[in-house]
Specification:
This protein is mainly alpha-helical. Among the domains are: 1-183, Arc Repressor Mutant, subunit A (Orthogonal Bundle); 187-260, Serine Threonine Protein Phosphatase 5, Tetratricopeptide repeat, CATH 1.25.40.10; 282-413, Rossmann fold, CATH 3.40.50; 427-513; 525-599, Arc Repressor Mutant, subunit A, CATH 1.10.10.10; 838-950, no CATH class. A 5-stranded parallel sheet has the order 8-9-10-7-11, with helices on both faces. A 3-stranded antiparallel sheet has the order 1-2-3, with no helix packed on it.
C-alpha cells in the first residue's frame, strides 16, 4: 500500500466531498460557508499563488463594492481559526504579490493521496499484480466522501478541477474493475457494471467490461445483447457507432476460440522509472494530464535543463504509454524506425515502417511520448499528424525547445522551478522553494553531511536564483557539494560553465555539462538568430522590443529584428512577460561568452550603454510620477546597474554616472542603493571628467542615497555642489529637486529648522513644478509636521498630496504620505481611524517589494502596538525594521532611531532578556510580506481592542 504519512503538527485537508480540515487527527473549524469556499479555492491549486481576482470571483457571483477589503477580512478570519485549532501561529496561508498561497504538506491533501494511489494501482496492473492493483484502486476510491470540491461546485473557476478529479475517479473505477476481472471476480461485477452503464451510458469502456463479465460468467447471449444495447445508446444520444475497441471486442465474442483479456485492445507498456525523486512540479504534471484529457497533441516547451523529459515521464506514469527518446537521432528519415523499435513494431519487407506503426496503434487508447523533438521538428510534426489522424484513441505528448507547429497542438511552456525571494535568508523561508528543496536533496546525496541551515541558506538561495531555478543546473551545482562549500559555489557562479561539468555519466552528452545544454540549443539556430541572441545577452533583466530593435539597428531593420526575437521566444531562448522580454542568466552568460569569442563584446556593450543612458535622459523617466514611469523604472533597474558596472570597469565615467544617477530616481528598491552609490561616488573620488550636467545629476542622486543611509556629511557635500551646478546651468527644476533632497537629508537626520529653510528655497526655485515634484515637496513638509507633532498640519498636507496624485498614480509617494496620515490620524482621532489609514497603506505595500515604505509601515505599526500594550508584537516589528534597513546599508529617521533605542530598552526590561531575544530573532527571520499581512489582520475591524485581546504573540 502507498504510504502517506503527514508530519506531526501539519493540517490535513479533504476536497473529495465537502471541505474537511483536520489538525492532529481532530476536525478543525474554519468558519462559515465563505471561509470554507475560500479554503477550497486555495486547495484547487495548493502551493500555488491564487490571484485576488480569482478568489473574489469564487466567493461572490456578483462581487459587492469593497470585495477585496472583505476578502482581506476573510483571510484574516481563516488564519485566526487555523491558529486557534493549532494552538500556535500558523504560517501556512501566505501572502504573495497579487494573491495568496496555501502551503500544504506533502500527502496532507486527500486529492493528492487519491492520485498517488490511482497511479500506483495502474503501475501494479502494468506488471501483472492484479489483486494488489484492485486493492490500491479501492483504497483510492474510499477517500471520496461526495462530489469533489462541493463547497465551490457552482463556481466557474472550479469547473476544470472538478472535471479532472471526477474523470480520474471514473478512471480509478474502470481500473479497479479491470483488476477484478483479471483476478477472476467477474460474477461479482455484473450487477455493479449494469448500474454503472445506466448512470454513464456513453462510457464505452464500462460497456466493454460488462460484456466481458457476462461472457466470462457463461452468459454469451447477454454479452452480445450488451453490445446491441451500447450501440443503441450511442446512436440515439450521439449519432455515432461504437468505437474500434468495442467493435473489436464484439468480434472476439463471436469467436469462442479467443481468450479475452480485460482490455484486449490496449497493449501493456510501462515507462522507465527514474532513480531520483521528482520535486516541485505537481501543478505542471496535473496540467499536462488535464490537457491530455481534451487535446490529442500536447507539447511541453522550455529551455534546455528545465526538466521537460522528467515531467513527461511523470505525466505518463501509470498509463499505457511508450517513450521514444530522440536526442541521439540525427537523421530525420530514420524517425519511423526509432518509433517502431520503441513500440516493438518490427520492420516489414516492402511495407513502410510508418504504415506498420499506424496499423499497430489504430485501435489503441494510449500515450506516445516523443522526447526531445527540437532538432527534428519537421519530421516529428509530420509523424505526429499522420499517427493522430489514423489512430483516434491515441494521444501524443512531445517535449521540445520549440513547438511542433501542428494544428490542434496544445502548449505548456515550462519555466524553471520557483526560487525564493532574495531576502529568504533562513532555512525555514528558503526551504519553501522547490528549487532549494531540489538542491538540498541532491547535495545531501553527494555529501551526506550537508544540511540546509540558517548559515547555509543565503548561499543556497543565491545559487538557485543565479541558476534561474533550472533543475539540471541546480543538480550540476549540487553535484559539487562534496568539493566546495555552498559559499564557494555561490561565489564561483560567474564561471558557471567551467564549474558545472559533473553530470551523470549515463546521461546524454548534451546533459553532462551546463555548457553542453546551452550549446545544443545555440547550434540549432540559424546565423541571424545566433548573432542576435548573443547581442541581446547584454540586456540584464527585462527589456522592451524597441530597445532590442535599437540595439540591433546595424544588423537588421526593426521588422526583421522583431521576427528574430519572436523566433527566439519560440525556441525558449527568450521569455516574454507582460510585453517585455527576458533572457535567463545562464543563457546570458553563454551569449556574453559568444560575443567575447567573436570580438564583439565591447562594441555591443557600448551600444547598450548609449541606449540605456538615453533612457536615463528621458524626461518622462526623470520626472514622471505615474504608473507608466513606475513600470519603466522596474524594467530599467538592471539595465542601469549593468551599464554602470561595465562603464566603471572600462573607465567611461560619464556613462557610469548617468546610469548611476538614474538608479536613484526612485528610492524603494534596496538593490538600487547597493548598486548606485559606488558609481555616484565617482565625482567625489578623483573628479571625473564629465559634463557638468551629468556630474550634477549624479551628485543629486548621491544626495538622496546618502540621506537614506544616514550619511548627512556626504549628502550635504554632494547636494550643495549639485545645486551650484544646476543653478549655473539655469536648470531650475533640477535645482529645486536637489534642494528638496538636501532638505530631506536634514529632516532625516533631525535638523528640522535647516530642512524647513531648504524647502522654502526649493519652493521658490520651482516656478511651475510638475505635479509629481510639487507632491514630493508637500510630502516632505508633511513629514516635517509629523516630526514636530503637528498632527493637523501633517494630515492636511498628506491629503493635499493625495489630491494632486489622484490621477497620476505614483504609488510610492501615495503610500509614503498615507503612512504619515495614519500616524497623524492615530493621534488626532484614535486607533480606529489611524488603523484604517494604515491598512490602506499596507494594501499598497503588500507584495510590492518596496524597502523604505515597508520599513516605515512597520515603524508606524509599532506605535499602535505600543498604545495597545502589545509588547511582543512591538519587538518583532521593530526587529524587522532594523533587519530590512541593514541589508542595503540604510538607516532610520533620526527621530525613529531615538524613539526605538529608548523603547527597546524598556521592552527588554519589561519582557525579560530571554523572551526579548527570542522575539528579536523572530523579527529578523520573518518575511516582510508575512509581517505586513499580519499587521493588516490584527488591525482590522470590527473592534481593535477585542481583536488584540484574542491575538497570540506574532
Amino acid at each position: 500500500m502507498v504510504q502517506n504519512s503527514v508530519p506531526e503538527g501539519a493540517f490535513e485537508y479533504g476536497i473529495l466531498g465537502p471541505l474537511e480540515v483536520r489538525f492532529a487527527g481532530a476536525p478543525a473549524a474554519v468558519g462559515g460557508p465563505r471561509h470554507r469556499a475560500l479554503l477550497a479555492a486555495l486547495l484547487i491549486q495548493p502551493n500555488v499563488v491564487v490571484s485576488l481576482g480569482q478568489l473574489v470571483e469564487t466567493l461572490w457571483e456578483d462581487p459587492p463594492a469593497g470585495a477585496t477589503e472583505l476578502l482581506y477580512g476573510r483571510i484574516a478570519e481563516v488564519r485566526r481559526a487555523m491558529r486557534a485549532a493549532a494552538g500556535r501561529r500558523v504560517p501556512d496561508l501566505e501572502t504573495h504579490t497579487g494573491g495568496y498561497l496555501l502551503r500544504v504538506t506533502d500527502g496532507a491533501l486527500d486529492a493528492q493521496r487519491f492520485e498517488r494511489l490511482v497511479e500506483a494501482g495502474l503501475e501494479a496492473a502494468g506488471t501483472g499484480e492484479h489483486r494488489r492493483a484492485g486493492e490500491l484502486q479501492r483504497a483510492a476510491l474510499t477517500l471520496w466522501r461526495g462530489p469533489a470540491l462541493a463547497d465551490v461546485a457552482d463556481q466557474p473557476a472550479a469547473e476544470a478541477a472538478i472535471a479532472r478529479l471526477e474523470e480520474l475517479r471514473m478512471r480509478a473505477v474502470e481500473a479497479r474493475i479491470d483488476a477484478d476481472l483479471a483476478d477472476g471476480r467477474h460474477h461479482e461485477l455484473i450487477a455493479e457494471l449494469a448500474a454503472l452503464v445506466a448512470d454513464h451510458p456513453l462510457n464505452e469502456r464500462l460497456w466493454g467490461q460488462l460484456m466481458l463479465a457476462r461472457h466470462r460468467s457463461g452468459r454469451l447471449g447477454e454479452a452480445l445483447a450488451t453490445f446491441d444495447a451500447a450501440r443503441r445508446e450511442l446512436v440515439e444520444r450521439l449519432g455515432t457507432e461504437p468505437g474500434p475497441h468495442l467493435r473489436r471486442l464484439h468480434q472476439q465474442l463471436l469467436r469462442p476460440d479467443l481468450e479475452l483479456t480485460p482490455d484486449a485492445a490496449v497493449p501493456v507498456a510501462v515507462l522507465p522509472r527514474p532513480l531520483t525523486t521528482f520535486i516541485g512540479r505537481a501543478s505542471e504534471v496535473a496540467m499536462v494530464r488535464r490537457l491530455l484529457t481534451t487535446q490529442r497533441l500536447v507539447t511541453v516547451t522550455g529551455v534546455g535543463g528545465a526538466g521537460k523529459s522528467r515531467l513527461a515521464l511523470e505525466a505518463g506514469a501509470g498509463r499505457a504509454a511508450w517513450l521514444v527518446e530522440l536526442a541521439a537521432l540525427s537523421q530525420p528519415d530514420l524517425l519511423p524506425d526509432v518509433v517502431g523499435d520503441a513500440l516493438g513494431v518490427p520492420p516489414h519487407g516492402t511495407r513502410p515502417r510508418l504504415d506498420a506503426i499506424v496499423a499497430h496503434l489504430r485501435d489503441v487508447d494510449g500515450l506516445l511520448i516523443l522526447d526531445n523533438c527540437e532538432h527534428l521538428l519537421d519530421a516529428a510534426a509530420g509523424l505526429a499528424e499522420r499517427i493522430l489522424a489514423a489512430c483516434p484513441g491515441l494521444r501524443i505528448l512531445a517535449t521540445s525547445r520549440e513547438r511542433l507547429g501542428v494544428t490542434g497542438e496544445a502548449l505548456l511552456p515550462l519555466p524553471g522551478l520557483a526560487v525564493p525571494d532574495a531576502g529568504a535568508a533562513t532555512a525555514a523561508l528558503a526551504g519553501r522553494s522547490p528549487a532549494v528543496r531540489l538542491f538540498v536533496e541532491r547535495a545531501t546525496a553527494t555529501d551526506p553531511g550537508f544540511a540546509l541551515t540558517d548559515r547555509t541558506a543565503t548561499a543556497v538561495v543565491t545559487i538557485c536564483r543565479e541558476l534561474d531555478g533550472l533543475p539540471l543546473a541546480i543538480e550540476l551545482a549540487a553535484a559539487r557539494a562534496n568539493a566546495f562549500t555552498v559559499d564557494e559555489l555561490a561565489a564561483r557562479l560567474g564561471g558557471r560553465f567551467d564549474l558545472l561539468t559533473r553530470g551523470s555519466r549515463t546521461a546524454e552528452p548534451r546533459h553532462r555539462t551546463l555548457h553542453a545544454v546551452v550549446d545544443w540549443s545555440y547550434q540549432l539556430l540559424n546565423d541571424d538568430e545566433r548573432r542576435l541572441f548573443a547581442w541581446l545577452s547584454v540586456f540584464a533583466g527585462r527589456f522592451e522590443l524597441a530597445w532590442a530593435e535599437a540595439l540591433a539597428a546595424d544588423l537588421h531593420p526593426p521588422a526583421t529584428t522583431a521576427s528574430i526575437v519572436a523566433a527566439l521566444v519560440d525556441k525558449s531562448l527568450l521569455s516574454q512577460e507582460s510585453g517585455r522580454y527576458r533572457m535567463l542568466e545562464t543563457l546570458r552568460a553563454y551569449g556574453i561568452e559568444r560575443l567575447d569569442e567573436q570580438h564583439e563584446l565591447q562594441r555591443v556593450r557600448d551600444r547598450h550603454a548609449v541606449l540605456v543612458v538615453a533612457i536615463a535622459d528621458d524626461p518622462h523617466y526623470q520626472f514622471g510620477g505615474d504608473s507608466t514611469a513606475a513600470q519603466l523604472v522596474g524594467a530599467t533597474i538592471e539595465q542601469f546597474r549593468t551599464v554602470m558596472e561595465w562603464s566603471v570597469d572600462r573607465g567611461d565615467a560619464e556613462a557610469a554616472l548617468r546610469a548611476a544617477a538614474a538608479l536613484t530616481l526612485h528610492r524603494q528598491k534596496p538593490e538600487q542603493h547597493l548598486a548606485g552609490r559606488p558609481g555616484l561616488q565617482l565625482p567625489r573620488n578623483g573628479g571625473a571628467d564629465v559634463w557638468p550636467a551629468v556630474r550634477a545629476r549624479a551628485l543629486s542622486g548621491l544626495t538622496l542615497l546618502a540621506a537614506h543611509q544616514g550619511d548627512l556629511d556626504a549628502a550635504t557635500a554632494a547636494g550643495e555642489e549639485a545645486a551650484a551646478l544646476f543653478r549655473e546651468a539655469g536648470d531650475m527644476e533640477r535645482y529645486g529637486i536637489v534642494l528638496r533632497r538636501l532638505a530631506f537629508a536634514e529632516i532625516f537626520c533631525g535638523s528640522l529648522k535647516r530642512g524647513d529653510a531648504l524647502l522654502i528655497r526649493a519652493d521658490q526655485a520651482a516656478t511651475s513644478p510638475k505635479p509629481g515634484v510639487r507632491a514630493a515637496m508637500l510630502a516632505e513638509r508633511a513629514l516635517m509636521a509629523l516630526l514636530r507633532a503637528d498632527w493637523e498640519q501633517a494630515a492636511r498636507l498628506s491629503d493635499a498630496v493625495h489630491e494632486i496624485l489622484r490621477d497620476a498614480g505614483d504609488a510610492d509617494l501615495l503610500t509614503y504620505t498615507t503612512l504619515i496620515r495614519a500616524e497623524a490620524a492615530r493621534n488626532l482621532s484614535g486607533l480606529a481611524e489611524g488603523a484604517e489609514w494604515l491598512r490602506a497603506a499596507l494594501r499598497r505595500i503588500d507584495g510590492a517589494g518596496w524597502l523604505w515604505n515597508t520599513a516605515l509601515a512597520l515603524q508606524v505599526a509599532s506605535r499602535f502596538f505600543d498604545e495597545l500594550g502589545l509588547a511582543p508584537q512591538e519587538v518583532v516589528v521593530l526587529s524587522a525594521v532594523d533587519e530590512l534597513l541593514q541589508r542595503p546599508g540604510g538607516a532610520l529617521l533620526r527621530w525613529a532611531e531615538r524613539h526605538n533605542r529608548k523603547r527597546l530598552a524598556w521592552l527588554r526590561g519589561s519582557i525579560g532578556p530571554e523572551r526579548f531575544d527570542a522575539l528579536w530573532q523572530e523579527g529578523r527571520t520573518r518575511s516582510a510580506t508575512d509581517l505586513v499581512d499580519e499587521v493588516h489582520r490584527v488591525l482590522s475591524p470590527p473592534d481593535l481592542q477585542t481583536t488584540y485581546r484574542r491575538v497570540q504573540p506574532i
